[in-house]
Write a structure and sequence with these properties.
The chain is about 25% helix and about 35% strand. It has about 290 residues and is of the alpha+beta class.
């Protein structure tokens, strides 16, 4: 595809994007310094680098975003270039222009992903654009965290036992061929080297919510939430952390809390939280 065809194709897609900036991604073998050097060759300013996708936010003249994207796509060193898409999610009442871009396989099916803009990184991966307050670049080395582990195919008991033997704790299944696993940084590094494992990534705070809850993060006032906690976690401890954010909680099988809606991202960032949904009073059908 030549540059003109590339520009015409981009214009036909009616992207909603941030003017004056684009996202450029590179193969994982490229170190950050070399990426910046490549951009310098084009006299382009790198505003931000994300190691999660090995990509950069680059400033370009407003109105020439598509021209620069298509020009850079001709460079064999560059894996992909795209508009800087605006996220559909909101945080604390303001639209976020500085997002994390999380690299994730296209075959991972998470309900929350429908609430965010995404862009293609390569034939196997997309970049999910999520607000900074809903993403975790990495866990602290001394802390266990929750990761998505995707296998190369059908998952057998041996595959699960391999992860358990390395210190992981298996939790829920995610289509396709993936599980949420709690493990340390050391265990994560060993798990991703298993022959049966295709990909490992953090179970992000952004993944812990229903799409309609994500789309309404700009709302104000109190909201009644149900907070699901991973098995093995201390629900009382997590409830105390939610109370410290100003919530009023009750704890049974799950945690129910009345809290200011602006605190939802902070609840999602609590490591032991599995999922958050707005509590709806049950209705009785008298028909």
């Amino acid at each position: 595809m030549n540059v003109k065809q590339c520009i015409d194709e981009l214009k036909s897609k009616n992207y909603s994007y941030l003017p004056g900036s684009i996202i450029v991604s590179f193969d994982e073998k490229f170190p950050e310094k070399e990426i910046r050097d490549v951009m310098s060759e084009y006299d382009l300013n790198v505003k931000k680098y994300w190691d999660l996708c090995n990509c950069v936010h680059v400033e370009v003249p407003e109105g020439l975003e598509f021209e620069w994207i298509c020009k850079l796509k001709q460079d064999e060193r560059i894996k992909h270039a795209e508009p800087n898409l605006e996220s559909k999610a909101y945080a604390n009442g303001e639209k976020t222009n500085e997002n994390c871009i999380i690299k994730i396989p296209k075959t991972i099916k998470l309900v929350a992903l429908t609430a965010f803009s995404s862009s293609e990184i390569d034939s196997d991966h997309i970049g999910i654009h999520i607000p900074k307050n809903l993403c975790v670049p990495s866990y602290s080395p001394e802390a266990d965290g929750y990761y998505i582990v995707q296998f190369k195919g059908s998952v057998y008991d041996k595959d699960k036992n391999d992860i358990i033997s390395l210190g992981g704790t298996m939790h829920g299944y995610i289509p396709e061929h993936a599980f949420i696993v709690k493990m340390s940084e050391t265990a994560k590094n060993n798990v991703q080297n298993l022959d049966s494992v295709k990909w490992v990534g953090i179970y992000q705070p952004a993944y812990k919510m229903q799409p309609d809850l994500i789309d309404s993060l700009d709302r104000t006032g109190n909201i009644l939430l149900t907070v699901l906690v991973f098995s093995g976690e201390d629900k009382t401890d997590i409830a105390d952390k939610i109370n410290a954010l100003g919530g009023t909680t009750t704890t049974t099988a799950n945690i129910r809390t009345l809290i200011d809606a602006s605190k939802i991202p902070e609840i999602a960032n609590i490591i032991g939280v599995h999922f958050i949904e707005e509590y709806k009073m049950p209705t009785i059908d008298l028909a």
